[in-house]
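FORM 12-B: Structure-to-Sequence Request
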């Protein structure tokens, strides 16, 4: 799949953040699949081919570790965007280089995620 045509999972439970991130993803020429909770994110991953993901660390139904683990084992690049203290996230085994604070520069995140695509 060409870098101008990626399908990106966005897991975000805050409506304003989801709209902002979705707009940036779509304006960059990519398709976005939005999940507002972990259950929806896992369902999307089970049923749709995703090329990359942008994940809020804390969603309404828990933290994003199960989704990140599935992405990692599937070799799908992802970024975690969160207001949660970085040490809290890294203590759960998630790597520091994938964590971005809020407010996030979604354009920068998309550039880094698409860099890994052929």
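FORM 12-B RESPONSE
SEQUENCE OUT:
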């Amino acid at each position: 799949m060409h870098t101008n045509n990626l399908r990106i999972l966005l897991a975000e439970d805050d409506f304003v953040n989801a709209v902002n991130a979705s707009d940036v993803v779509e304006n960059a020429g990519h398709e976005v699949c939005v999940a507002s909770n972990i259950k929806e994110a896992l369902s999307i991953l089970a049923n749709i081919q995703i090329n990359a993901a942008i994940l809020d660390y804390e969603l309404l139904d828990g933290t994003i570790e199960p989704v990140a683990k599935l992405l990692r084992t599937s070799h799908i690049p992802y970024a975690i965007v969160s207001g949660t203290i970085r040490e809290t996230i890294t203590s759960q085994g998630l790597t520091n280089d994938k964590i971005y604070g809020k407010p996030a520069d979604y354009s920068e995140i998309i550039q880094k995620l698409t860099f890994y695509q052929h």
